Fold this protein.
Amino acid sequence: METASRSALQNLIATLTEIDERWSGPEWNLHSEADVTASHRALMHILEASLVGFFEQDPARPDLRRITTPSRKLTGDNPDAIYFDAPLSNAFTYVMRGSLHGAAYFSVTIEEGTAEGHMASNTAGVLNDTEMDIEDDGSFTLYLGGEQRERNWLPLTPDTSRLTTRHYFEHESPVQLDPAMEPCMSIECLESQGPAPAPDDTSVAQSIERVTNVIKSRTLEMPPMANTQPPPFVSLTPNECPPPVRPGDFGFAAADAHYSMAPFFLGPDEALVIRGRWPVCKFANLCLWNRFQQTLDYRSRKVSINRAQTVLEDDDSFTLVLAHEDPGVPNWLDTEGQALGMMFWRFFLAEGDVETPTTEVVKFADLGAAL
């Protein structure tokens, strides 16, 4: 029996096969068994996220769902942050209630272009906690769309399709690992909707198509990094951090942050020494990712560092060390033994320019002299 849902499912299966044949291979610069294995793991995380976030969604009846977890990693997750999103439409007006939950930084961003599961094409609006009226207990109420309000309001553009929330924390251990740190939030459409239509062949097919689009947009529609012109905050040169800059309206980026991203590439007997100074800002950290923008294992390894976790020098500067094994010094970041990975810096609401961290590759055996 031919149904629209069966056709959509067959297309999903064909897309997964194409991803395996192309994205998980030399066309995307994957040449080793380890590379292919890592790509399949990343694909499973993307698949899970697409099912959780996009398979059943309704902008007329939205709910906030957690984007990443310690076992669901994609698009640059962060051990020090908890993210939620929800579908939106400018046909409706929404009220969102929540709490800062002790976060060092909180924001809401409005994205365009994601309605059918594609990557965001644009960030259409942002509101952070410094721009909001917040109660003494950290609770807040925000309005999205509808008539303009003086405070705690964001307009919805004609292409609005999604909302993303960001809670960033600077604790001594990753908040992603602490269930008590998950903020409680809700979102409600203010226009009365009545009961939702029962799922049918058309709606299920559309849901499967969204899942396919999510997976495709994060694999086949993302050209290999070396084959494209990266945004200004991204460097293709290993072991050299570019100057941190604001991302502008780059999709899924926080417009009030400075970012800096670069690959690290270290031989088995090498380490990377990073020196710099944290700026005055609301939040700052460095995360280590694999090539698929997934954090390394922060359950059992130290793969990120924020200001609360940093041991500073007498002049308030820092010295970090990326190495494959513990060098016995403060501020060591564990590469998992991976020769290649990504360094991603975040600085939120920084005052003035952000100092570019400097780097030096040294032999692991010579670390003592280098420090």
User: Anything to note?
Assistant: The longest helix spans residues 33-55. The longest strand covers residues 160-168. The helical segments are 4-23, 33-55, 201-217, 367-370.
